[in-house]
């Protein structure tokens, strides 16, 4: 018999507080214990589009759910309105859980929301989550780092607040200085992004993988090259949400696709040695 463990010292979720929590990349099993604890005690849960029903189903029955999701090209709440809503709910004396996909501080606008809370003197706690740029790639059999492949990695977004490709990125520095580049929200401008990297000296045949619905049962991984990435995405009808990874770590997937192995794929180290 496995001995029972003592109760974990969870912090008290007090009325009038906002907890900014990451729900992870999708698989409910990747939710942290602190996030689970918050779900079980929140009065109101303000959640994003990428938070799935299985995770929301962990909330206590009395919790009120408020959708605040953002999806590109579709009508969605404005970020300032969401931040003000958190302040409003907290001032009602409610325990407010702001539940976001991935990690709230990794391209999740959690910092913007926290600054609004500070401005209005609303107490808050941050609960990190597993970001899709790490957890999603791990489910695809692609390590973010491998000592025989890379000693640095860059995380970047494919579009700015305006919806355009960010104009503050030093494309040459990233292309030449980062062996592995992991991009969030990059599908819309993938052709332009790939061109900028190739113009900056990145090999046209550099390995690329696009991971959609990361960690979920319908996860799909497209392996391609920097030169063909945009056309292959169009050919296969791939749509967001997706992660894009550029770099030789993609070449390790034939050996490390553990999820594929569960479905019968034979893993092999042939051709993937450092």
Overview of the molecule:
The structure is a single chain. With 274 residues, this protein is α/β, with parallel strands linked by helices. The chain folds into two domains: 18-130, Cobalt-precorrin-4 Transmethylase, domain 1; 133-262, Methyltransferase, Cobalt-precorrin-4 Transmethylase, Domain 2. It is 28% helix and 18% strand. The chain contains ten helices and ten strands. The strands form two sheets. It has a five-stranded parallel beta sheet with strand order 3-2-4-1-5, with helices on both faces. A five-stranded mixed beta sheet has the order 6-7-10-8-9, sandwiched between helices.
What labels would you give this structure?
five-stranded mixed beta sheet, 18% strand, 28% helix, Cobalt-precorrin-4 Transmethylase, domain 1, single chain, Methyltransferase, Cobalt-precorrin-4 Transmethylase, Domain 2, uroporphyrinogen-III C-methyltransferase, 2 domains, alpha/beta, five-stranded parallel beta sheet, globular, 4pyrrole_Mease_sub1
Strand and helix layout:
Layout: E1 18-22, H1 33-39, E2 44-47, H2 53-56, E3 64-67, H3 79-91, E4 96-100, H4 110-119, E5 124-127, H5 132-139, E6 153-157, H6 171-177, E7 180-184, H7 190-199, E8 207-212, E9 220-225, H8 229-236, E10 242-246, H9 253-256, H10 258-262
Parallel strand pairs: 1-4, 1-5, 2-3, 2-4, 6-7
Antiparallel strand pairs: 7-10, 8-9, 8-10
Helix pairs in contact: 3-4, 6-7
GO molecular function, one term: uroporphyrin-III C-methyltransferase activity
Domain Tetrapyrrole methylase: 18-229
Family: Belongs to the precorrin methyltransferase family.
